[in-house]
Write a structure and sequence with these properties.
Blueprint lengths: L9 E6 L1 H19 L4 E7 L3 H8 L6 E9 L12 E4 L9 E9 L3 H11 L5 E9 L12 E5 L5 E2 L15 E4 L6
Parallel strand pairs: 2-3, 2-5, 5-6, 6-7
Antiparallel strand pairs: 1-9, 3-4, 8-9
Bound molecules: inosinic acid and magnesium ion.
Amino acid sequence: MAPMGMRDDIASVLLSEEQIATRVAELGAAITRDYSGRDLLILFVLKGALIFVADLIRRIDMQVRLDFMVVSSYGARTETSGSVRIVTDMRSDVRGQHVLIVEDIIDSGLTLTEIIAHLRVREPASIEVCTLLNKPSRRQVELDVRYAGFDIPDQFVVGYCLDFDERYRNLPYIGVLRPELYA
Ligand code: IMP
Ligand code: MG
């Protein structure tokens, strides 16, 4: 018997490919406007922000540099363990640089708070955050988010590089995972 396709595990499409592309273009235009004339270092968080950053930087019409960090916190769960592990650190010297952190989604806010604290001691000129998705109702810590693609309800979503237990990242849209799959 053929295994069920990943699309069968999606209860509903939350954001289509077209909706995402439109919003990503708007974010890119806003970033271009806000940072024009300044040096910008884009620091993206792997693996979840991989597809978002790939699309976003092609909508930013100015010189940027890229670096990344690999962090891990969830594993095969749908809620943060509360402890964020930096698996791979960035390599750039961020001292005096304008840094824009690019994330896939902000839920509790703990991951980004950790990353920002980790960056701040290296004295960048500025730190701002750009996230594709934001779940404001889930926040455990206060966080200043300069660019947010979409505020979404408290549902676990996958696709466009967001995963559940490392799967569904290659789904081209963002869908709500059927809750019985992780309940
Ligand atoms: P936070 O530390 O609770 O803000 O969680 C941020 C990280 O949790 C993100 O970078 C994602 O990797 C993951 N995450 C949070 N919510 C979801 C979701 O709905 N789907 C997939 N991953 C999520
Ligand atoms: Mg993840």
